[in-house]
Design a protein that fits this description.
This protein is an alpha/beta fold and 387 residues long. It has two domains: 2-164, VC0802-like (2-Layer Sandwich), CATH 3.30.2130.30; 176-386, HUPs (Rossmann fold). Helices cover 39% and strands 21% of the residues. The protein is built from 13 helices and 15 strands. The chain has helices spanning 16-33, 58-65, 84-94, 117-131, 186-196, 214-231, 242-251, 257-275, 295-302, 318-327, 331-334, 356-363, 368-377, and strands at 2-9, 40-44, 47-51, 71-81, 100-108, 135-137, 144-150, 155-159, 163-164, 176-180, 200-207, 236-240, 280-282, 309-310, 380-382. Helix 3 (84-94) crosses helix 4 (117-131), helix 7 packs antiparallel against helix 8 (257-275) and helix 8 (257-275) crosses helix 13 (368-377). The longest helix has 19 residues, at 257-275. It binds adenosine-5'-triphosphate (ATP) and magnesium ion. Residues 182, 184, 340, 342 line the site of magnesium ion.
Length: 387
Amino acid sequence: MRQVILLRYSEIHLKGKNRILFEKALFENINFSLKDIEHQLKKFSGRYIISDFNEIYLDNIVDKLTKIAGIYSFSVAYEVDSKYENILNCAKKITKNFEGAFKVSTNRADKTFELDSMSVSKKIGAEILSINNKTFVDLFDPKNILYIDIRENKKTYLFTEITLGVGGMPVGTSGKGLLLLSGGIDSPVAGWRMIKRGMKIDCIHFESFPHTSRAAEQKAIDLAKVLEQYNGKIKVFVVSVAKIQEAIHAVCDPEFMVTIVRRFMLRIAQKLAKLHDYQALITGESLGQVASQTIESMAVIGQVVDLPLLKPLIGYDKQETVELAKKIDTYDISIKPYDDCCTVFLPDSPVIKPKLSKVLLQEKNLNIDLLIDNAINSMRIRFPSEE
Ligand code: ATP
Ligand code: MG
């Protein structure tokens, strides 16, 4: 008997070519995630199996698997040749700590196996009872379940737990997006939601040194590093908006500061996206959360882009986003108290329902193309995984 990990994937409606792409991407993503740990990965009848790893890395592997989009669930299992004696011996070993109610649940995919699934469950259940007097059978409310999966490859898998994975689709099967990543709570969660749907992301971060500290930028890099565990390697475009903010501050009505800076951010992100073949921009906006996220503000800000502008958190309450941020391990980084560039030159009362005509009039005072080109020319590219 040897220890393996059985993986199941979701999206059962996948058909034909889509299914092949999905399976290939998931296979590669699992191998990439486990690249530092010696292992074998094989696919068989709608499942994947990881084997030939050193058991001291088991927790490490499990942790990585809980972060791979496209995995529906997985189980640490024991594999034996499909002979009744082997199955029984293994079952006895892995149930020896069972206490209280239990049941055996058998799945016989190999119809040539000598006993049907009900008979296997009954016989093995009776054997466990005869050697473990701390346990009893309850088919309807068991505390422990022994799963026996008799597969077509003449191997049987025994396990007692099924851990849910991220679900969703493998990264790389839903195109490429550019995430506007601040140091806040929302944007990393927004990125994660798109990763979960199979979109491969890179990030753009806007800083405003010397008005903001280098620590604020580092926060975004640290957040990208967490997202890399789900997405694979991430590139972060770091663009300074200091000069843009100074220009706006010098010639525009202060109440439009936030609206106009946001429009610059989107224009710059879109220009880079088109240059580097990203199919969408992603932000962490949520309807009504702050002045710049009223429906009127979002309309005026979004007016500068023609690429799809994805806002996966648009219908989320803050608390729902916070819970997800904790779950994906970005929260503790996001709440570190470094100023974001959006707090620079902040007016006392930003306009909540900006009018496009007024904003366009304000922007006439600026050399928009030159400001954008200068910002892009001084851009830096960082790779969190290499730092
Ligand atoms: P977050 O928690 O993601 O910062 P927020 O609720 O603070 O979001 P805003 O500050 O209004 O909202 O930002 C809205 C969105 O604009 C962010 O979710 C992010 O996608 C983008 N954004 C804001 N600031 C930056 C920045 N400095 N760099 C990159 N993107 C930014
Ligand atoms: Mg913010």
